[in-house]
Amino acid sequence: MTRAEYENKRAALMDEADSLIAAGKIEEANDKMDAVTGLDEEYEKTAKASANLKALQKSPAPLAGYGDGVAFGGSQEKTENMYDSAEYRAAFMNYVLNGTAIPEKFHNASTITKTSDVGAVISPTVLNRIVEKMESSGMILPLVTKTAFAAGVTVPTSSVKPVATWVAEGGTSDKQKKTTGQIDIKGYKLRCAIAMSLEVSVMSLQVFETVFANNVSEAMVKALEQAFIGGTGVGQPKGVLAETVEANQNVDLAASADPSYQTLVEAEAALPLAYENGAVWNMTKKTFMKFVGMVDANKQPIARVNYGIDGKPERSLLGRKVVLNDYMTSLGATITKDTVVAFLFDWSDYMYNTNYNMTIKTYEDNDTEDQVTKAVMICDGKVIDKNSLVTVTKKNA
């Protein structure tokens, strides 16, 4: 039955029903209306069957993102990041090594900034290598909490851990208020200069990207980790040692005294139990070696150096991991003021904020004829909870 036939039959039945009602023949009119209902149901079944048949006659179209075919971009052009193309990577290499300007077609208005240090965007391929290298080569960087907030935002923090309490059946407990604070995220510019001599200007793209990634990552890691520990918070991230420790969480070491077993015991005792699990010792290698020869009352070594499966040394003091760095004053060095020579801290309580977007600018050093590359990254870092910080301070007098 076609739609036209259906509509004609339905209109005829409705006219007949209307005439019967006008003549007072209600029962006969009801029969006609029942016939209309039956006609509607019959046509609905016919229409559904016809639609199902047409659907089966067509090949199924897969959802976008699954399977193959035009719907998935099979015959469509794939969009490629222009900064990740082989052409741009080659142009980037020429820019770094020879100072050749990046072609105009790679200039994107969205990347223009007000800083004069932006000369070219680092290719995502190279940037991924740099980030991977930074994560694997750093001692402290892999331990901190990483975020990617926009510069200028305010992030809430908490400095008190909630406590659970036992209650009787049907009982309740006191509501605990979390002590909250805030951290203002700033956008400090980290710039490191890498000199690449003219002797290496003749190299393949793959070799250049490897050398460039190694140089940038090494310089960035050193600058970041130094700021994580001793940064002033002015024009750079605020380091752990710029924080004021909580009451009774500092251990003083007299100017004329050497570190002892008791020094470590007092520091461990000052560490709150709630922050026991993640805290690690932080000190220079020279300071750690001062502890290596120490023994406890049972003549057992305080410091231990084990070697993991990969052969890397794993240092510990009283069973706690030691993270070495070159950014602190060592025990035995001449000091002119009270100086922190070691500290306990849970690095997950330190927030490092960056989006890992790096740009570069090059110039030539006229004295050495080296092409100097300045890698620039916007980042910030701050302690979000200092309750795990325990310091060992060498007194000046």
Description of the structure:
- The chain is an alpha+beta fold.
- The chain is 31% helix and 22% strand.
- It contains 7 helices and 14 strands.
- The protein has helices at residues 3-22, 26-57, 86-98, 124-137, 205-230, 261-270, 285-292, and strands spanning 120-121, 145-147, 154-158, 180-184, 188-196, 250-253, 280-283, 303-307, 313-317, 320-324, 339-345, 350-365, 370-383, 390-394.
- A 7-stranded mixed beta sheet has the order 6-14-11-7-10-9-8, with helices on one face. Strands 1, 2, 5, 12 and 13 form a 5-stranded mixed beta sheet that branches.
- Helix 1 runs antiparallel to helix 2 and helix 4 (124-137) crosses helix 5 (205-230).
- The protein is elongated, with a radius of gyration of 36 Å.
- Residues 68-76 and 109-117 have low confidence and may be disordered.
